[in-house]
Amino acid sequence: MKPKTKGITAAVVGTALGAGGLAFVAMPASADDKPALPQVSAEDLVQSVVKAKPGAFDGTVKVSNDLGLPAVGNAVPGAQALNMDSAHIFSDGAGKSRLAVTQGASQETVVHDGTTVWDYSSKNNTATKVTIPADVAKQKGAGSEKTADPLAASTELLAKVRESSTVSVDGTATVAGRPAYELVLTPKPTERTLLREIRVAVDSQTRMPLRMSVLSNGTSTPALEVAFSEIEFTQQPADLFAFTPPKGAKVQEKTATIDQQDKDRAEQAKQDVKVVGDGWDTVVTGKVPADLLNAAPKQQSGREGRGNADPKALLERFAKKVNGAWGSGYLVTTKVGSAVLTDDGRFAAGAVPEQVLYEALGQK
């Protein structure tokens, strides 16, 4: 593959809304050829996507979003991923991966060989080497195939919404030079959601999603797009998953551990989180730990695009102050979802109008 002379490939990007976290992935449509393919039922196509194991591949990623998110810069972890110029992904199909993300003149490289993760930034010529002990990898899921598969989130999304959707196959398309089926999921009339439909272009051979588009109500173009304009399913050279820092790079070495405080928070979050509804109008509710809500800003470190800011200051700057029978708090809205964080630390988030969030907050 020659990224400089060929198009841009795509993978999955998640975007978080508020404390609850809403993940959506999308890939752009294109006016490509419509190849002749054997007929397949919508249900069989969905099942094959959920069960697919694409194996080794490499590709380049481009993200384009029209979500209507506030310009938070590096203040929110992951926000910069939506504004990256491109990313090149390599996977051996068995847990090893290499990701190179380009933003402007700088590039960040993350290499995962199963037991070690290297994170290098060309912007400041720094590298972090994290060794992952076997017991930590088992608990955190490090080295799993999902780490290397950038489209794992799309198959999970299909599995969650298909029961509350009208599912159809809307012809075929050529995506990244490969023949694909166009799978369309539309919410049933009873679903109260901001989303109009999800379109997925599925590779006819590997059943890997090559393109996915999330469209919101009242719009004719995708709210978020990520696309494979080129992809090759082939064995990858072993040296791609080894990393040697450039000369003069400042290297920091760490050993991954299970932080007891983080573990306790995760366990408490499981107990506090409640799912209201199902399908497209699912709302996740819960409570943010007081120490996180009142956390002081921290200096940026490590991977580019990560940052920490005063949570309350961010809310006052980018969110709308709201109140109701459920209490008072801050509302964040985008074209594909909304989230509320109350003054006493409760949250509700979903791909739904704000009224549905308020109803969920009012449930005991």
Automatic annotation (TrEMBL):
Keywords: Signal
Keyword check for Transcription regulation: no
Domain of life: Bacteria
PANTHER family according to UniProt: SPORULATION PROTEIN YDCC
MucB/RseB N-terminal domain segment(s): 84-235
Gene3D superfamilies: Lipoprotein localisation LolA/LolB/LppX (2.50.20.10)
Species per Swiss-Prot/TrEMBL record: Amycolatopsis iheyensis
Signal sequence extent: 1-31
Protein name: DUF2092 domain-containing protein
SUPFAM superfamilies, sorted: Prokaryotic lipoproteins and lipoprotein localization factors
Keyword ATP-binding attributed: no
Pfam families recorded: MucB_RseB
